[in-house]
Amino acid sequence: MEAYDPFIAVAPIKPACNRMMFWSKTKDVVHDFTEKRDCFITMEDTLMGFVLDGLTWCGKEGSKETFTTGCPGWTDCENNTVRSFWSRASAAFADAACGHVTAMLNGSIAAPFSPQSVFGSIEVQRLNATRVRSLNVALVTQENFVTNCTNTSLKDLQKKLDEGIKYSCEEVAEVQIQECSSNPETPCGACW
Fold first, then answer.
1. Euclidean distance between CA atoms 37 and 70, whole angstroms
2. Are 12 and 93 in contact (CB under 8 A)?
3. 2 DSSP 8-state letter
4. Percent of the chain scored above 70 by pLDDT?
5. Given 39, 98, 169, 191, the catalytic residue
6. Torsion angles phi and psi, residue 137, rounded to 5
7. Helix, strand, coil distribution of the chain in percent, nearest 5
8. Roughly what angle, to the nearest 10 degrees, separates helices 174-182 and 27-36?
9. What is the pLDDT of residue 75?
10. Fewer Cβ atoms within 10 A, N terminus or C terminus of the chain?
11. CA 102 vs CA 1, 22, 62, 150, 165: distances in Å
């Protein structure tokens, strides 16, 4: 992970207080929203995130080349180059978080918060109460949603937050988010 520190230093993440959006298992919904509305920014909206999102790269032992094919998958090896980058970049994004931050989590799965996800294992751990006042979870639901804001995994999320960070959760239908993202007249705060 530290191998990417020089890269992070060249393109530092600037704090965007009250506008930083984290996500887990909701990538398409989040990015559809942030592409259409200028309410929030995600890691993928930063310079490095934008450039590297969706790319795969790796090295091979004994070679100085960078390869884009034949690379191990995200979980195939402990020091996966792509996972290491996103872990380090996500840590920097969380370190820059300030004010009120938002996380979109998936309400259509049994455990919307996973301590093993990048959000749970890295970003939540780095939210600091000296900079972050609150975390608002937008729990994205569909017709077949299986959970709500009282879910045990979300209680685990609350316990992992730095003391002093306020927590709130709101169940929001995915269709409501889509309607809001398509209507620029709707204030960002009214989307959920």
1. 37
2. no
3. G
4. 99
5. 98
6. -90, 125
7. 40, 20, 45
8. 20
9. 87
10. N
11. 25, 6, 43, 17, 12
Cα(113)–Cα(121) distance, rounded to whole angstroms? 10
17 is catalytic: yes
- 3 state SS of 188: helix
Residue-wise pLDDT for 29-67, tens only, equals 999 999 999 899 999 999 999 999 999 999 888 999 999
End-to-end CA gap in the chain: 35
Q: At 52, phi and psi to the nearest 5?
A: -100, -5
Indicate the SS3 state at residue 133: strand
What is the pLDDT at residue 146?
Answer: 82
Residue 76, Cβ density class (10 Å: 0-12 exposed, 13-18 middle, ≥19 buried): exposed
- Alpha-carbon separation of residue 89 from 92, 135, 151, 169 (angstroms): 5, 20, 29, 25
**31 in helix, strand or coil?**
helix
Cα angle for residues 32, 97, 186 (degrees, 5° grid): 40
DSSP state of 43: G
| Residues 85 and 57: beta-carbon distance below 8 Å | no
